Amino acid sequence: MNARPLALARAIALLTPLFMLGGAYAFQYVGGLHPCEMCWWQRYAHMAAIPPALIAYALRARPCWSALFAGLAGLAIGVGGGIGLFHAGVEYGWWEGLTACSTTPTGGGDILAQIMASPITRCDVAPWSLMGISMAGYNGLLSGVAALAILGLLAKARTA
Q1: CA 32, CA 35: separation in Å to the nearest integer?
Q2: Helix (H/G/I), strand (E/B), else coil: 130
């Protein structure tokens, strides 16, 4: 197994979800943009990608196992990207998404008071966009490219 493409696949598998989650949390806590339910689904997929990516690094001495866990991380990243593309389609009105929007309480204490004070975040409205592409759209595009790159690099590492 070729070590170079595998090392690059591991790096992309770890850095992509860290970058995506870091951006999402920055938009939430610095920018004040609260996530909707589909935003959380995208985050969950990226959160799920981090443990196998870390395991892939821990198993560097065992290339086949390292590749397996990097591939699992790549699949989780791809799922997050797919959810992002679906969410972007809902925001652009290409198809119907969830019929209900939701928000989540942020801490301890009186849950009902927190829910009542929480902003309602709609899944079908893009709270931010750059060049006409929403955060969900960027997540879909970047995560999709990263997932394809990881899987392509793993295929290259296997054949080389």
Answers
A1: 10
A2: strand
